[in-house]
Design brief:
heterodimer; A: 562 residues; mainly alpha; Cytochrome C Oxidase, Chain A; B: 204 residues; Immunoglobulin-like; four-stranded mixed beta sheet; 3 helices; 27% strand; elongated
Chain lengths: 562, 204
């Protein structure tokens, strides 16, 4: 086959052969990777600004202007977290929950609305920053988002509507997942809601452990829900609470902006800034320290069992630990407020330090269980999915302790708001830990979602792996070192004050950008441009499940609704 | 062992974390290599409960270690019961420092209280050495109590090393903190000067 032929038609991908569930999954994944590219470009622009006015820096002068720089910094996490990561995770889970529960997805239509709303919302938030330079950053510290002396009202309104659309799409995903899990059809036909709830919260695993200690028979030998579904179930609780908090903050800001636009500005001091910080960080932290860690643990367990074909080591402990992780995630937000002198010391000590340290335990447990499961199954072939899984484990192995170190009243005094936390913790956790786990899932799911489409090039897949791994760790490491040298994370440096750290961070960042281009090229060559467009065309096969007989989307089925 | 300033702490932290990072990358690389070997044997066995105990000890021990080696932790917790050697109070509004002395000269070993108020946005208060490294920082939240008195954002700091430190806001408060060409308008050069210490720190 000629190069042009492959570019247009792919290897052997036939978009007409894939069903509605596969298509909606792929649509979210495609959007996620497009947004990933955008976020990588944004990241590189900011990195080059921090390199400063040095010879060979190709960045045009306009990017050095504070309005422009902070607009990019504002949308960078919105595009990265919601436009890319949320979509990728939601897309994967929209496929995995029906696949693992052997039931159809509750509604393909709703799943379509989910990716459309998140895509639209992300685009609107981006437009607000690009056109009106609305730049309160993702932290939205009160009263900055309502500061109409610095920002245009219209920019704020568009931004908040964008974020609200993302959250509405998120609520749609949550409804779809729970409606699918609780549907009493297929293998769950004879299960009660109570049984599904007990399994979803991991209480069965906990009772099994208790019974084992007491020398009794297990509470259940066959839990109602598979362990990865339990992780999705529990992580989604945090996703829901987080969506409510962000929507709540959005409504508050919107009210202030609308009143301001009408000429009747409200008094911003009516809202206590520190109380608002507590409320907002409680919700926002449910992403970082809640759903991400729980979803990731569940993904590791799934990947370890799929890669080895064996049962998970210490499954009951893993089930019970996921419940613990959920509770921990609700009580750790104060580690973001260790530098706030008005925050009660007791909250700093208990929530900010002690409970936060528990994450070392829960994440360490997930790491241990995954490694032992893999070890027991050796020898294993070093497949792409195994490589990426190990990369993901390294990422969290580096990033979680980096954060625990800073979640300390002594260390926080000299590390808060520096590049340490955003580099050594956030970027390594997301780019290396989370994304490599997601790439592993992608390679596992690829044959299922694309009906065994042949990957265009394994060499390119390997190139992507090494560029992404080295680029991710390298960039995070040099950002972290700059943080130790005093470089702030939400600050504009235009004279290259933190070179050569920033130059090295930019070089490794470039590797990440190249890695993404290599990956995208490999995928496009596999599915072809026709296939890529075909993914967005209506599915001829309306099946809402994968690998089972009973198939059609059952949103309107009365039996399903029960 | 006690860290007398943040520079010592950050150097220690740099070394300790670099060793840990090299170790975790090596362990997973070694693990991955052996996963593909048929006859790979465990070099050592890690009993589950010992592993969990190690994580608990690591999580709790870290805070015990820092509490006992970083002097500003206990000082921060107990700051309302400590009488400072000097107190400086000022405010911020519209990205400008209000009532700020041109320079503060501090004798070595003195404990100084900084009490900063914000009249509009969330700012930060941070001191930096001439090489750019951070001495310390805190957040500066706006707000008033029921009587309309501006909320305190207070920090106690003991200076054990000579130096001249710059001041700036460590929290983003909008693009107006900067000029169009990117200069930090809240940067106050040479704001704090500490004198009277020995070369390697401590009172002469």
């Amino acid at each position: 086959m000629s190069y042009i032929d492959t570019l247009i038609n792919g290897t052997n991908f036939d978009h007409k052969s894939i069903n509605a569930l596969q298509k909606v999954t792929l649509r979210a994944v495609v959007m996620a990777f497009l947004f990933y590219g955008l976020v990588a470009i944004e990241g590189m622009i900011m990195r080059l600004v921090e390199v400063g006015h040095v010879p060979l820096n190709p960045l045009p002068e306009q990017f050095f202007h504070p309005e422009h720089f902070f607009s990019i910094m504002t949308v960078h996490p919105i595009v990265g977290i919601f436009g890319s990561t949320y979509q990728l995770v939601f897309g994967a889970f929209t496929f995995l929950v029906p696949y693992l529960t052997k039931k159809p997805l509750y509604s393909v239509k709703l799943a379509n609305w989910t990716w459309i709303l998140i895509t639209l919302g992300t685009a609107l938030a981006w437009v607000a920053a690009f056109v009106w330079q609305y730049a309160p950053l993702y932290t939205l510290y009160w009263p900055l988002p309502a500061d109409t002396h610095q920002f245009k009202v219209i920019g704020g309104i568009v931004f908040i509507i964008g974020v609200a659309l993302i959250m509405i799409g998120t609520l749609g995903f949550i409804y779809n997942i729970y409606a699918t899990i609780f549907a009493r059809v297929g293998i769950h036909k004879n299960k009660t809601t109570k049984e599904l709830l007990i399994s979803g919260f991991g209480i069965d695993g906990f009772l099994n452990l208790i019974n084992k200690l007491r020398g009794k028979q297990p509470y259940t030998k066959e839990p109602a829900l598979a362990l990865p579904v339990v992780a999705i179930f529990r992580g989604t609780v945090d996703t829901f609470l987080d969506a409510l908090v962000i929507l709540g903050a959005g409504i508050l800001i919107l009210v202030y902006l609308v009143f301001d636009a009408s000429g009747h500005a409200l008094d911003v001091t009516a809202i206590d800034a520190l109380l608002y910080k507590n409320f907002f960080w409680w919700g926002l932290d449910l992403v970082a320290d809640g759903l991400v860690l729980i979803y990731v643990a569940g993904s590791w367990y799934l990947l370890a069992t799929l890669i080895t074909g064996q049962k998970l080591f210490m499954e009951n402990v893993a089930r019970a630990a996921l419940m613990l992780e959920l509770l921990v995630s609700w009580m750790v937000w104060s580690h973001h407020l260790l530098g706030d002198q008005g925050q009660p010391e007791m909250m700093k000590l208990i929530s900010g330090e002690m409970v936060t340290a528990f994450e070392l335990l829960t994440q360490g447990l997930a790491l241990f269980i995954t490694l032992v499961t893999l070890w027991k199954a050796r020898p294993l072939k070093m497949t792409m999915e195994l490589k990426y899984l190990l990369g993901g484990l390294v990422g969290f192995g580096l990033a979680v302790p980096a954060a625990i170190i800073q979640a300390d009243m002594g260390m926080n005094r000299v590390l808060h708001n520096t590049q340490w936390i955003i580099g050594a913790h956030v970027h390594i956790a997301l780019i290396v830990g989370l994304y490599m786990t997601l790439y592993s899932a992608l390679y596992v799911l690829w044959p299922l979602v694309t009906n065994n489409t042949k990957l265009y090039s394994h060499k390119l897949a390997n190139t992507h792996f090494w560029l992404h791994l080295i680029g991710g760790i390298g960039m995070g490491a040099f950002m972290g070192m700059a943080g130790l040298d005093g470089m702030l994370r939400r600050h504009l440096y235009v004279d290259g004050q933190f070179n050569p750290d920033m130059i090295f961070a930019a070089i490794f960042g470039t590797m990440l950008l190249v890695a993404w281009a290599v990956f995208l090229y490999n995928i496009i060559m596999s599915v072809g441009i026709k296939g890529l467009i075909g993914i967005f065309l209506p599915a001829k096969d309306a099946t809402a499940s994968y690998g089972i007989e009973e198939e059609l989307e059952p949103a309107d089925d009365p039996a399903f609704a029960q | 062992m006690t860290f007398t300033n943040s520079a010592e702490l950050l150097s220690f932290h740099w070394v300790a974390y670099s060793i840990y990072a090299a170790m975790i990358i090596s362990v997973v690389a070694w693990f991955g290599y052996n996963l593909t070997k048929k006859d790979a044997k465990s070099v050592f066995r890690i009993p589950f409960y010992w592993y969990m105990a190690f994580l608990v000890a690591g999580g709790v021990g870290h805070h015990i270690f820092t509490y006992n080696t970083i002097p500003w932790v206990s000082q921060d917790i107990d700051r309302h019961n400590i009488t400072p050697d000097a107190k400086y109070e000022f405010a911020i509004q519209n990205h400008k420092w209000i009532g700020l002395p041109k320079q503060i000269v501090i004798q070595c070993g003195q404990t100084v209280e900084f009490d900063v108020h914000s009249k509009d946005l969330v700012y930060g208060f941070g001191l930096f050495r001439q090489d750019g490294s951070m001495v310390m920082q805190m957040q500066v939240n706006p707000g008033t109590d029921v009587n309309g008195i501006l909320d305190s954002n207070d920090i106690l700091w003991t200076f054990n090393h000579n130096g001249v430190f710059d001041l700036t806001s460590t929290e983003y408060s909008g693009p107006r903190q900067y000029s169009e060409d990117g200069k930090d308008l809240m940067l106050v050069k040479d704001f704090v000067k500490v004198v009277g210490c020995k070369d390697n720190g401590g009172i002469q």
